[in-house]
Structure of acetate--CoA ligase:
Amino acid sequence: NNNDIRTINHLRHVDSMATMPSGAGKIPRLNAVILGEALATEENDLVFPTDEFSQQAHVPSPQKYLEMYKRSIEDPAGFWSEIASQFYWKQKWDDSVYSENLDVSKGRVNIEWFKGGITNICYNCLDKNVEAGLGDKIALYWEGNDTGFDDSLTYSQLLHKVCQLANYLKDMGVQKGDAVVIYLPMLLELPITMLACARIGAVHSVVFAGFSAESLSQRIIDCKPKVVITCNAVKRGPKIIHLKDIVDAALVESAKTGVPIDTCLVYENQLAMKRDITKWQDGRDIWWQDVIPKYPTECAVEWVDAEDPLFLLYTSGSTGKPKGVLHTTGGYMVYTATTFKYAFDYKPSDVYWCTADCGWITGHSYVTYGPLLNGASCIVFEGAPNYPDSGRCWDIVDKYKVTIFYTAPTLVRSLMRDGDEYVTRYSRKSLRILGSVGEPINPSAWRWFYNVVGDSRCPISDTWWQTETGGFMITPLPGAWPQKPGSATFPFFGVKPVIVDEKGVEIEGECSGYLCVKGSWPGAFRTLYGDHERYETTYFKPFTGYYFTGDGCSRDKDGYHWLTGRVDDVINVSGHRIGTAEVESALVSHPKCAEAAVVGIEHEVKGQAIYAFVTLVEGEPYSEELRKSLILSVRKQIGAFAAPERIHWAPGLPKTRSGKIMRRILRKIASGQLDELGDTSTLADPNVVEQLISLSNC
Ligand code: ATP
Ligand code: MG
């Protein structure tokens, strides 16, 4: 059949690569693909891009990838400076291109890229594109919470709005290097504000507008902004959230701690609430609409060094207290633009939608900077993906003819639970690439995403990366090679992922261990704000000479990478080290299981035993039979040693506000340490915890 022919062609295509030098950790192995073994083993479950897709892709084949990857590793300075030259630099960087020390035993950890180069990321996102003739192209589409409310800005219009705000900020005394805290929902004003800060060299710190007053005040106290920017209220689904009240409370707290804020700029979000009922502090609070439109629509750029800070962003807090990650300008710019272009095979005709909020790194790198640097048309969505119903995403896809859709496994799983009808009711014909980020995507969720959402036609870019890495690190390049459901596949250009054992020794070939990165890449974070020591201790001391990601990873015989979850979450049952992702995937593959999270609990004999929290698909009742069948599913897919000791029925799971499961809290619930739940301020819905505790004895 057709499929076979395609498969064979593809392999023949790569056959000539058999002579490619391939040492693990240096050049990724694409063994099966290279040697043609792929056809032999069925369980490999390779999903090939179509020939049509590959032919039009930026990277159409494994050999093209290997060629580019090899160059990026052997000559990083040459590789990256060639790419960087496509951006606008007021002045070129120093000869060295980059300098790095990741080895704590050799002194201070230090990473610099394009040092001495003078540029501005806002200029590269906007002015440069306008000058290139994209002035009338839509830069941002805005889709409101309620259907029928939308807006858009062309590149020229966006530039004008950014300049007006930038002029205002300068008037308020914001200077290069000053911090600005942004507490805004997904309005166009959010990327506008980020870009306005970048334009004048101010350091933005976006705080996700779902965080509590306490979390917001902690961040304000930490970075001491000159100005705080927010809006009066926002509608999320059917609910109205009074953001300004939260900011008021946060500013009271910060003032008490010696960080008073003199200027709070408030956007009047009329669709959510009229201004007259907003509580107001004269002298401090200013309505955006009263001042910003009066400012000139042109604003000179503040030229900055590539190594000047661009933004400060706190991690999502899945594993503990959030860390203030600092990114600088030049390397981040080059890296986000390049990863966006290749991982999503971006073409000027694309309409791109990333569902992430700008409050997270994904919204920084892949809603704002990466797409705009490429001159893309990008959707900013204010609402919730299941409002007014679970078909909203596909409604938006059809409305804007979205071609690239990038989201998180948590959303994929929840839409999968709601049923296919919500998806198949819409055409989705425009889609050509899907993306996933935030957690490992379970193979069963991957298949549903691929088959149902993408009509078995769109490659999935399962992008593994972190707030700290700035951009994609391990990711498919759609079109380049076959995918395996649940694997993030191979490293991006310039990235050297290594898997090490407990002693920090690199393991080659097929293996499993701690995921580290050797050497730096342009998008790497440079420090934790105000705490370089914590930066070194957390990331560079665990394994000397490497950046330690905190994640576990295995590499299969074909060289594909599989993220197994956080290493802190690894469970050791009778000497078997089991990653959470593996067991959760086995559970989620059961047709009645919507979502699962596993943790380890102490066990007299085995050391640790597996305790599983399971959410069933809509309307499915709990039963003893189902419990047994779930356990059987794990026994069959992984082995008896991984069978959960207990199944805890969970109507919902505790998640961070970015949608990640917080296993740290589940561990405490599982072991009955209910008074030690720790910091729960980054939880999306604290009620879930009580529900779970009340179901403990079922
Ligand atoms: P904190 O560091 O505060 O605990 P966090 O790690 O959740 O929070 P982020 O930087 O937003 O904060 O998330 C990065 C982490 O998300 C990665 O370390 C990894 O565990 C997980 N992750 C992201 N993308 C993927 C992916 N495609 N596959 C597997 N895991 C992923
Ligand atoms: Mg992290």
Observations:
- Residues 1-27, 31-43 have pLDDT under 50 and may be disordered.
- The chain has 23 helices and 31 strands.
